[in-house]
Specification:
The chain is an alpha+beta fold and 526 residues long. It has 15 helices and 22 strands.
Length: 526
């Protein structure tokens, strides 16, 4: 019997938590000597970590999944038992579950909660769970990953099995379709296919076209902050994104600062090779470029600095043409003056906002997010306001505390957004080649070069494809590379001083005169 997904008391997290226990039980049925680690619910499903006597393979996942389905059909009850810690150690160590015993040692209470599944499986767990395994719904194991116990590379190597669970088959199928769509848009694969990058993500190299797109993004953001008097510094290389500000602060702290030097506005633009990969919308990246803007100022300059930096951010978002932008403002109190000031700036700039209250937060955070065509939220940039973070010499000669405001952008994340949002269809301003010109025969080459000169003169990036291929083959090549504008020139077009205009969406616009070509292109992409 499946749970009723329309029931308001139904909790998907509880179902997934229960599915994780079914996964552990199934794995131990097939691999009795395995040791289990942690098995939490995730945003999309659940996972469980295991130390198998011999590492398992993707083929083993299908066996484990089949065993899970058998356990679900058995309708075994989930039952909580509470025991003393000594009894808990006895339960775990008799089963060889040393990882769970380590977790039990860290529980401060004298008693511990366990959950039994039927009479066969028992696990350290606070719960809650569904009533029985026949209430788990439908499950699918989707991934196998190498990890270390507690994320520590010096601890034992484990294998993490990821799965998903839904109340109904229809919901699972909808998830799998969405997952496939997301996989097809993976910017790591698409950027190679579009000839923007070479190599893997630990040693990625940008082609000339990819570099142009990359620099376009950097320039849009940097120019907006330069307009607010931010000066560039070349900070020290870093191995972790958390070190960016620390590296920048060396410029501020290399001498005692006077109030006359404040506000001090600087930014750094660094491509970094990280010791551990960072995640961009679920994809791992080792090489990332951080654009970080930071201002150092007196407390009475707070509003002016918020105004300057937030204006640069919003203007950057506008020029980047990011869809469906939203600002999440995190402060300690609904009534704080800081929230009022930030909120007023966002309102004037036309940015939608939500407010999150965290009583223990010092200062404020603002997370700017955009939603892509698959309704996924991407963190575009993150702003931090901190009070008392610096020192400076005031008018009386005393050393006093000042404030900072800092915004982080990751260029790769922005490029990834544009690639994944429309499955590789970069907006016109970002496309390395905006127009490809295809003369059908050599006789039209001179006219093709004239058209190219016209487009370049008007600020468009245009190339000629005069390879010894058929017209259809060259058009297909341009479509595969998702070039926005395809211009075909035959003898009829040459004689009439016109071109045949085609969009990458395979939309034929027919003949367009040479005089109106640029205006037509810009009107299509305005």
């Amino acid at each position: 019997m499946e749970p009723d997904s329309n029931n308001s008391t139904y909790d998907l997290d509880v179902l997934r938590h229960s599915a994780a226990h079914v996964l552990a039980m199934a794995a131990l049925r097939l691999f009795p000597d395995a040791r289990v680690g942690v098995g939490p619910v995730t945003e999309e499903g659940f996972y469980y970590d295991f130390e198998f006597p011999t590492p398992i393979t993707e083929a083993d996942l299908r066996q484990i999944e089949a065993e899970m389905n058998l356990i679900i059909q058995e309708g075994l009850a989930f039952q909580q038992i509470v025991v003393s810690k000594d009894e808990g150690f006895d339960i775990l160590l008799k089963r060889g579950q040393i990882f769970k015993a380590e977790l039990l040692r860290e529980i401060p209470e004298a008693e511990a909660s366990f959950y039994k599944t039927g009479n066969e499986f028992i696990d350290l767990c606070r719960g809650p769970h569904v009533a029985g395994t026949n209430n788990v719904g439908v499950v699918k194991l989707i991934d196998l990953q190498d990890v270390n116990w507690r994320g520590d590379p010096t601890r034992p190597s484990l294998q993490r099995i990821h799965g998903v669970a839904y109340p109904s088959l229809e919901e699972l199928q909808a998830y799998l379709r969405r997952r496939e769509a997301i996989s097809n848009r993976d910017f790591r694969k698409l950027s190679k296919f579009l000839q923007l990058t070479l190599g893997d993500q630990s040693e990625v190299v940008y082609t000339p076209g990819g570099t142009l797109a990359f620099r376009q993004i950097q320039k849009v953001i940097s120019d907006k902050f330069r307009q607010q008097s931010y000066d560039e510094i070349l900070a020290s290389p870093i191995r972790s994104l958390e070190q960016v500000e620390e590296s920048m602060d060396k410029f501020y702290t290399h001498k005692n600062r006077s109030y006359k030097e404040l506000p001090l506005r600087v930014f750094t633009n660094l491509r970094n090779e990280l010791d551990a990969p960072t995640r961009i919308i679920g994809r791992e990246y080792n090489s990332v470029t951080s654009l970080t803007f930071k201002s150092y100022f007196q407390p009475q300059e707070k509003f002016a600095e918020l105004q300057a930096q937030l204006s640069a951010i919003v203007e950057s978002l506008d020029q980047l043409k990011l869809p469906r932008s939203l600002a999440r403002i995190v402060v300690s109190d609904h009534e704080s003056e800081l929230l009022t000031q930030i909120s007023e700036i966002m309102q004037r700039k036309g940015i939608s906002q939500t407010h999150i209250i965290k009583p223990n937060i010092s200062g404020a955070e603002i997370e700017f997010v955009a939603e892509d065509s698959l309704e996924r939220e991407w963190e575009i940039c993150h702003t931090y306001y901190s009070e008392g973070a610096i020192e400076y010499v005031d008018k009386s000669g005393q050393m006093v505390k000042g404030n900072t405001l800092c915004t982080h952008w990751t260029v790769e994340k922005l490029l990834a957004f544009f690639i994944e949002d429309q499955e590789g269809l970069l907006p016109l301003w970002l496309a390395p080649v905006q127009a490809i010109i295809i003369p059908i025969a050599e006789e039209q080459l001179d006219f093709a070069e004239k058209i190219q000169d016209t487009l370049i003169t008007n600020g468009l990036r245009a190339q000629i494809d005069a390879r010894a291929e058929t017209m259809q083959a060259r058009i297909r090549h341009a479509e595969l590379l998702k070039i926005p504008i395809i211009i075909v020139i035959g003898e009829k077009e040459r004689q009439n001083n016109s071109v045949s205009l085609r969009l990458r969406s395979q939309r034929e616009l027919g003949l367009v005169s040479e005089e109106s070509l640029v205006e037509t292109i810009l009107s299509l992409y305005s």
